[in-house]
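Practice problem: predict the structure.
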Amino acid sequence: MNILALLSHTELFSPLSEGSRERIATIAVEKTLKKNQTLFLEGDRGHGIYLLVSGNIQLSKANPSGDRNVIIKSVKPGEIFAEVILFESDKYPVTATAVKKSLVFFFPKNQFLSLLESRDFRNEFILMLLRKQRYLTERLRSLITMDVGDKLFHYLGQHYGAKERIVPGIAKKDLAAAIDAAPETLSRLLLRLKKNGTLLWKDGEIIIKRGFWDTFGQA
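Answer:
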């Protein structure tokens, strides 16, 4: 398995030079997860970050009352997750569970921080983080101005891709929480989309009007 090729396609590490990615590759540890196996729990002490190679990982968080978990993200192959552990927190803020058999690379926090002792690596990594922060700030400003319909399709596109048929694998109330909408608001939106033929949620599958994604997001 070519880990360098994988790193070159991740959002976090692709902006780095090949030499820096080679250093990161040297600390990678391969791990295989069985279906429904928990990788880490919300509140566990964080020892590193992960790159999903194959399979599917769901990230969930306990709701305020603590009586259930809300799925907040479905990690796709090629994505880095739990990177908050590097600098922001020493505990995982979510629970990570393998939806099916999955393969991940684990990057130990202590070894990664040791790489930052190299001035060249540190400067390059900090520059990359600053660029990413500016990008995320702009994305946040954009999301704040979105109506609930745009939030829904943005979420679907980000998590499942621009597909005409999607099996979300989450309840409607969890999807409502993920797009910061009340369940009743999402229900009214889904009814409206069904009536105008844009989207139908039936038997656990979302069917989107053919050609919709070609124009979504265009002015």
